[in-house]
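Posting this for the archive.
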Amino acid sequence: MLALVLFAAVVAACSSQEPAAPPTGPTSTGSEAPPSPTGSSGGGTSNPPDLADARIRLVPVAELEQPIAMAVRSGDRALYVAEKTGQVVALTPGSDPRVVLDLTDRVSLGSEQGLLGLAFSPDGRFLYVDFTDGNGDTNVSEFAFGDEGADPASERGVLFVDQPFSNHNGGELVFGPDGYLYVGLGDGGSAGDPMGNAQSLSTLLGKLLRISPRPSKGEPYAIPPDNPFVGRDGARPEIWAFGLRNPWRFSFDTATGDLWIGDVGQDAWEEVDVEPAGSDGGSNFGWDRLEGTHPFEGSPPPDAIPPVYEYAHGDGSCAVTGGYIYRGDRIPDLAGAYVFGDYCRGVLEAFVPRDGRATQARALGPRVDALASFGQDARGELYVLSLAGTVYRIAS
């Protein structure tokens, strides 16, 4: 899903375009370009941390209405938080929260619907948001952004995707180290991928997309020329990776460029996937033939990429909330570890990637109700967002 229970505990819980040239400008989602890679793809750094010594606590930062996603903007001190109900709020030290975009009259509010994701262009000039409209369909819109916030009159539709069911909408937006916009879409919903979307290259559902979001040659966005399915008959050229059930939250490691994906499972297994930096794309992560490494429906694809980490439902678990490789300075014992959680269980967890495997997996201690998302600031420090209302900073 997100699991069918996701959000409920809080609420009750294209056609082909011409290829695009790579964008120019800064390549990170924060105020600085990412450092050069320091470790092997998918394997973390050469000097992994010892998680046995890691101790963390949670520092409340703000109380908002169902905070669900966070982004930072180049050259800007604020943290920008999307509320599921439709507003984007700026959190600046020493100031009250300030609304910089209001879509409350535009979004649908089913359990897995709403304003679901946001990202700033690398140069900070544009804000992109992902939301479900009154019909429950996915919209990615662009707004010009300045000192006063988003300009509502500047809205430009970038991407529209019809949603056959109300759940599994994805919603994550992330600019990669390559400057392109990555968009996460679930398999269309219901349960068990009844339409076979995740393994079909003819639909955008059940995929990660990679686009250049600025207008090009009369189209609302452009296709990077090195996308893996450009020019392939019957395949959508926007697709970067497929075989995903609901890639609710994903992130790039700012040190290595590896792409980490928390893909929400069906009834039994949750998984964390990784695509190493330098990949040519086209990875098949297996759904709905596989749930994690376990057969689900039909024959497993021979090219399926297994998860780096999976865990069974139990102990209250229901839906993985993907996080980040920690690259901050304040918690040295966590440096290079992947920090994540589970929406229902709520316990912050971590493991150390090494040689394509998850090692030293352990619970870090603190628990967050309705753990919807993580965030990362420009210095690599991490935040946790609870749909119950609190935005926390992870501290030592």
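The helical segments are 8-11. The chain is about 0% helix and 40% strand.
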